[in-house]
Amino acid sequence: MGRVITAAQVQSQDTVGIARWLLGKALVRTRGATARSLLITEVEAYDSEQDLACHASRGRTPRTETLYRAGGIWYVYFVYGMHHMLNLVTGPEGHPAAVLIRGLDSIRGPGRITRALKIGRNLNGIGATPEAGLHLEDRGIDFARRSIRATPRIGVEYAGPRWAGKRWRFFVEPGKVAARNAAVSQGAVGH
DNA sequence: ACAAGGATACCT
DNA sequence: GGTATCCTTGTC
Description:
The chain is an alpha+beta fold. The chain has 5 helices and 10 strands.
């Protein structure tokens, strides 16, 4: 069905590269007997204490402790009094970085993802493994570079022009996603 | 355009 | 202890 993505695969310091690479990977949620897997179609990179949009820009705090751990675990936080945000911690231990999962094929918006898949802070700091009930799989799906857009990250104006201006948000054009999925389900693409 | 809503970081 | 702010969404 797919190759489980391991922690070692997301521990390089190239957070932006990992973010882009995660497009087309499957987010797999298993709860009891049911399993749901959806392709990742939108992500954002948050990299290091220098990045003023990253929570780690304020250094180590109880909340950001998760970001400093070795990549391959989930960073889930609660914001605006009602939404959980799902991030994959990346990089080696001591390098605070993460990729925010902003959109899946069929679910757009980070708050909607966690609500639909019942993801809460109980997963914060937990390894992205099948045993945890939430992991990533590589199914050999690769979107054409032409269908991928790079824009500034959403909702981080507070970080100032230098950091808010970085085009670290990546997403696949909605239309392209549907077309590709149809091809995959018919065995014409992927392996 | 704006309220909802609770955790968080930083202040007094 | 008080409070400004927040990696959003739904409804106005």
